[in-house]
Specification:
Length: 362
């Protein structure tokens, strides 16, 4: 028999993809602007492209199961001991491993909301007791976080885009007997991290990804940084070949070309700030300040995202996410050209709405 908890879990909704828009509206898939998945809109570095063609001749062989070279590269990038690094098939894989090695039946898991829904799914799979705490705008207050076996924090947070102050994180670390998971998948866009606390607190686990900053979303590479005990536990249960030989080699190549990604990061941050200002001028949107590569907006009045999709633009409708009240859209920061097309579509909708309202009042 299927476990009862499976019937309680809603499938993870990854949003819409260009293939969906192409099928629904007859728009060429290549012409669809994808601003719904928080991907990096720029292509990988030349080093990554070169490594791709080199490694393709070796895909008949397994990668080395220890992933020592990748760990050494991550170690150099973060300035942490490679023995404190575990790897996995994307950050999602790492999050699940953390639940598997820490949670027994009915252990308490605290999840501040609104935040990433996979935390709850993985905790439910372990039959944990989940405590959701609603923090408006994800403004975390340490005094409101109860002692728990596992506490998930996201910084910058998905979907609100803001970071958790390090002083609040440290207060929580001191006050809990369990583990704190800091999801830092978007950390490079904010320039803020709690990596400096890893050696001070054995109960801190940091989760990172190659999908966002390093533009390798299609390869699925993630990693954790934490105490020797937690890292050894994760490494013990992960699949021996959890990262493909292609993904392994390209992740190393990405780390070898960090300067390129820093330049891309600066472009995205600049576009984020410009887009935030422009969206803020639209009277039917309330814009949340962001330190990530996406922007959350609250739609004050009736607005149909299908009007964007008909223009070949995908954004993420996060209305109904626990902790969000009202209609909300999460918008990935694209290239300058993509952002301009998004604004044109929004402004066209705004003009239509004003015209309609004026006609109605006559």
């Amino acid at each position: 028999m299927i476990r009862n908890v499976i019937n309680l879990i809603n499938p993870y909704d990854a949003g819409k993809f260009p293939a969906d828009i192409s099928k629904n509206y007859g728009i060429r898939e290549a012409d669809v602007i994808q601003l719904g998945s928080n991907e990096n809109p720029y292509s990988p570095s030349e080093e990554v492209k070169k490594a791709y063609f080199e490694v393709m001749t070796k895909i008949n062989r397994y990668p080395h199961p220890h992933y020592s070279e990748l760990k050494e590269s991550i170690s150099s990038y973060l300035s942490v001991d490679k023995e404190l690094i575990a790897v996995g098939n994307g950050a999602g894989d790492i999050l699940r491993y953390i639940c598997d090695v820490t949670l027994d039946v009915m252990d308490t898991v605290t999840i501040p909301v609104p935040s990433f829904t996979l935390y709850a799914i993985f905790a439910m799979m372990r039959d944990a007791s989940i405590n959701f705490i609603d923090f408006q705008g994800y403004e975390i207050k340490a005094r409101e976080i109860p002692d728990s076996k596992l506490i998930f924090l996201c910084s910058p947070n998905n979907p609100t885009g803001n970071t958790v102050p390090p002083k609040e994180v440290e207060k929580i670390l001191r006050n809990t007997s369990g583990y704190i998971v800091m999801d830092e998948a978007y950390a490079e866009f904010s320039g803020k991290t709690t990596l400096n606390l890893v050696e001070k607190y054995d109960n801190l686990i940091i989760v990172r990804s190659f999908s966002k900053f390093f533009a390798l979303a299609g390869l699925r590479v993630g990693y954790a940084v934490g105490s020797q005990e937690i890292i050894d536990a994760i490494e013990k249960i992960r699949l021996p070949f959890c990262i493909t030989s292609v993904a392994n080699r390209l992740a190393i190549a990405a780390l070898d070309s960090v300067d390129y990604y820093m330049q891309i990061r600066d472009k995205i941050v600049n576009e984020r700030d410009n887009l935030t200002k422009s969206l803020g001028k639209l009277d039917f949107l309330e814009v949340y300040p962001s330190e990530s590569n996406f922007i959350l907006v609250k739609v004050k009045e009736e607005f149909d995202t299908l009007s964007l999709e008909k223009n070949g633009i995908i954004v993420r409708n996060v209305t109904g996410l626990m902790g969000l009240k009202g209609k909300h859209l999460r918008i990935t920061v694209g290239t300058e050209e993509e952002n301009e097309k998004l604004l044109e579509a929004f402004e066209s909708e705004s003009c239509y709405r004003r015209s309609f309202q004026n006609d109605y009042s006559i």
